[in-house]
Amino acid sequence: MQPTPRPPERTAHDREHRVSRAFVDLADTLVADFDIADFLHVLVRRCADLLGVSAVGVVLVDVDGRLRVAATSSQGAEPLELFAVRTDDGPCVECVRGGAPVSCADLGTEARRWPRFTAAAHECGFRSAHALPMRLREQVVGALTLLGVDRGAPDPFDLELGQALADIATIGIVQQRAIERGGRLTGQLQAALTSRVVIEQAKGVLAERGAVTIDEAFTRMRDYARAHHLRVTDVATAVTDGTADLPAILGHRPVGRYLGGEPRGGTP
Question: Tens digits of per-residue pLDDT, 206-228?
Fold first, then answer.
């Protein structure tokens, strides 16, 4: 699977609208029935759309202090992020440990620093990587990794915007943890980390059944979940175990206010 090419340039007005839309979407997921799987998928997809990069991944620290891949914007990023976590090598690992951004404009020059990660990145088609900390004060909950198929650093504005989005996500996760210390949310966070594979499998099933893209499959699954007051993870589980109404999910078109061609978010 080849990495997604960099998105085309957009007008300043369109970019401003999409930036606003990203912050609204992230805020819209911070509701009483907080679904972290949905929240993180919104984060990576919005970052991939806005930041001029080919793919985005999020790794989080689980309750045992181990790094886990929580979400990726593309199938191309998935194996690389998994490899980084499993081998304890790469920018995202270093970023979480140091709690500071780690930037590499040319991974080919960092073979001695990250020997396994750079080789894997080359195989996956990525040439640059930039990891941004998901940190609130002294607490580091994970890292947001921006991957590029071309060598070079992202625009400074894009990096600042990426850090702002990572900060919003961090605050959301930390606040929800504080609300239910050690309770349902901790369990939900752990469940989200372990159910990532189920969500990816469900997207594949829907994409094949509906002859749609992976991104469109997730959008329809997410819209269906919101319209029926369900968690994305629960819908994905039903899809993979064969109990879901696939035509209903694939045919779902939320009714409500649309901005910029995309759903407003939430249920009508």
Answer: 999 899 988 888 888 988 888 88
